[in-house]
Amino acid sequence: MYRFSPDHRRLGTATSLFALAFVLGTSPAVAQDSANVATAAPQEAPAADQDRDSSEIVVTGSRIVANGFNAPTPTTVIGEEQIANNAQPNIFNTIQQLPSLQGSTGASTGTFSTSSGTQGLSSFSLRGLQPIRTLTLLDGQRVVGANVTGVPDISMFPQLLVKRVDIVNGGASASYGSDAVGGVVNFITDTRFKGFKANVLGSITTYGDDETALVQAAYGTSLFGDRLHLIVSGEYDNEGGVGPGNYGIDLAGRRDWHRASTLLNTGITNGPGPQFIYSDFAQPYQYAKYGLINNGPLQGIAFDANGTPVNFNYGSGGVPLGNGRVSNCYPGNSFCVGGDLSGAPGSSASLKSKLERINGYGRIGYDLDATNEVYATVNIAQVQTSNQPSPGYNRPNLTVQCANPFLPQLIRDRCAAAGITSFNFGSSNGQLPNQLVQTDRDQYRFVVGAKGKVDLAGTGWTYDAYYQHGTTKVAIDVDRIVLQPRYVAATNAVVLNGAIVCADERARALGCQPINIFGNFRPSQAALDYIMPQAGPLQRTTLKQDVVSLNFSGQPVDLWAGPLSVAFGGEYRREYYRVRGDAYGAGVAAVSPNNALYPADPLLNSAQGSNWAAGNYKNGTGKYDVLEGFVEVDLPLFDSDAAGRANLNAAARLTDYSTSGTIWAWKVGGTWNTPLDGLTLRAVTSRDVRAPNLSELFAAPTVTTLPSFNDPFRNVAVQVFQNTVGNPNLKPETARDTELGIVYSRPSWLPGLSLSVDYYQIKLSGVVSSLSPDQIVRFCFEGDQTFCGGFQLDGPQGSNFVNVQPFNLASWKTSGFNLEASYQWRQPLGLPGNFTVRALGTHVRDFIVDAGIAGVAKRDDAGANSGAIPDWKWLATQTYDSGRFTLTVQERWFSDGVFNNNYVVCQTNCPVSTGNYNTVNFNKMKGEFYLDLGASFKITDNAVLYGKIDNVADNDPTPSPQTNTGLDVNPALYDTLGRTYRAGIRFNF
């Protein structure tokens, strides 16, 4: 069995460094100048792909290739100069700052999770529609997913060769296929690069962590009379990450912004005050760092690090009531305020995953003639991450026997006096090692293709054909995590023949060693090996993608206002995944070959699995095939001095999925370059689709135990297993996207100016979403037979279950405005060089989520800063470039918001608090403004020294209050790392 190990890490690093050394050792040639589009008008079509013909413009928002075509869908262009000025170790960090990108994932998100598998995964989300609804391309081609959801990892792209990134802010399914509901992010590489270039970058935060080292190099040359073109590149990036902190409220470094902010649940739903009260320094009263008796006559006795019984300091003036509750505290979620905060685990989660990525890329192309090329590319990449989601093992409901020999005599005497033989006990288990989640993603991507021009019936046609095969292997290993049944056995100690041993004879036979949970007493290695076996939770995933694509574009007919442009083509795609878990998580029967590392244990649930405290990965497999064809036309309507120039763009795509059948996508739009100087109007409406991904269709099932589930048919509480499974009967989601825009670009009186305003509205139907177990059973109980086949509540002990799976139930609607402006001033105030100002903004008017379930209210997520969609988000840059010295000032800002738009704020005379509309006393989250400064200096014609400071003011994040013990921060919006210093040098020969 493969295990994530330091040896594997060293082997992968050594292999890639060898490849990098080969690149660095290759003789450099004369560099080829590449077009820089950073200052191009942002609202027009992207700059030309001048590999073969400078008269052609390839527009990412369209399949049309035409001279002077303007796309109706707004497209933002980020050029290599802007990418370089932002000085980030990962190009993902630069692009995700754009206002239209909301909800993207990266190394600072997902760090609180054990089982998600998204730690360190860099993926884009346009319009807040989540990464699964944004199509990310490399040179217009699909990329194999790095996760079971199908989204790729930008960390694996050949980043030094990227010459621009096109962001299509709107649906593009008719042109590019499934997933392009929110839009498209297309990375365009320099396929004609010649010469040698390199980049070395280092960075560190003001707190002395997240030390980063980046080395990139690329070499390109041509042979055989400039017909054979060879490009190789390699990069190595090591980001140290941030965290973990300590128990309580102490974060990594000297960060002091964590205040354990919580929405305290009073349990009062019918006034007069609110149900939830916002407070800092909340602490749970069910457990403590080294243990707390949390119920019965001894409630309130805790244990310090030395194992000495002490009276627990609850805060809030709390006094234990003997029934599990505490006076002056909050029973709804078992919190007090202040007191002993040392056991709270939230602050101990990593703020940023440690990340190491290695990337090798090569391209070889051969020109058959002046206009036709055949080529092949290979991209091999590895990304490894590690994070600590939480410390120790939080166990609030352990039963402890008063006869436990590790208990101080004082407590055993108190048990006898109270007439009890056991008590309820809660602990963060601060004496246990902290868990560590490690991911290893390895990707192998190969493309062969041909592109160029052919003449058919007297008409020149551009073609692009390619075959891509991609494989991603993902290994997730969780170390130092508890097997729950074994932990319980190890805590139940007795004295036998004068020695302290585990009480359960079966456990003793398999190596159980007792542990002392009453203080900071680290268990013996034998005890740790028993409760935290080295062969911990694991998941092994293989994803494969095969794509065959052929596209044509031409201008077959000259019409009254210009040529008719046509694009058409077809594509076949196959997606496959297979995932395997370990025997203790997935069930012994499911993975019997692993029994050598996971021997049978009578204490464990061998059939259901789910024995780990977290990381109970299951087995699954699935595949689907896609066959599709499309046609797109650009019809010139008129072209005159009096009326201006207008075109109509339309496209249709027919797609057949092996899992869900046939579906149409289409778009109709156009642009009008009015006779008014510099003024253009544009509009587009489209029907876009997203097919359910492999995880939604064939999800590896997960099992959760629900110990007290309400059976409404018999009005009794029963124990059931919640089986979360995929749904192979899911249908594609459909969206209707409408965009209207005004562009004012390069007027004759001020040719450096470009402005645009675009309104958008997206209505998404049939959104894949799930019901809760309670809802499934309740709907059946209320008479809806659709939900009656997925559960059993009255079977033999251990056989009851509720299957939870996704359905096409929900609908979303969002609308808003995109604004973009730029101005380039040549030789400002008589100074040499250029001064460029650029600003981009997005205003989200609404983001309505309708669960599609009776009794569940709609929710507006726009402006809920606990999520990822603020009302307003801006990015502005000001750059002065003298030709030798460059200074860049960047501002990032998003507006104030709330925790949740469905909260009802009140202090007194509150209405009834419901599950749809909770009453709260406070509902505000401050926005944030970040200032970044960067500069570069050309020390020679071939070398540039640069530096940058991100978050100059070292702004702290605004608390995002939890209702549990999690870390009170939202890394999807706020900078959680603080001020960061970056410096590096670039070479170009």
TrEMBL record:
PROSITE patterns: TONB_DEPENDENT_REC_2, TONB_DEPENDENT_REC_3. Residues 454-952 form the TonB-dependent receptor-like beta-barrel domain. The keyword Plastid does not apply. The keyword GTP-binding does not apply. Residues 70-184 form the TonB-dependent receptor plug domain. Keywords: Cell outer membrane, Membrane, Receptor, Signal, TonB box, Transmembrane, Transmembrane beta strand, Transport. Residues 1-31 form the signal peptide. It is a multi-pass membrane protein. A motif (TonB C-terminal box) lies at residues 972-989. It is found in: Cell outer membrane. InterPro entries: Beta-barrel_TonB, Beta-barrel_TonB_sf, Plug_dom, Plug_dom_sf, TonB-dep_rcpt-like, TonB_rcpt_CS. Belongs to the TonB-dependent receptor family. This is TonB-dependent receptor.
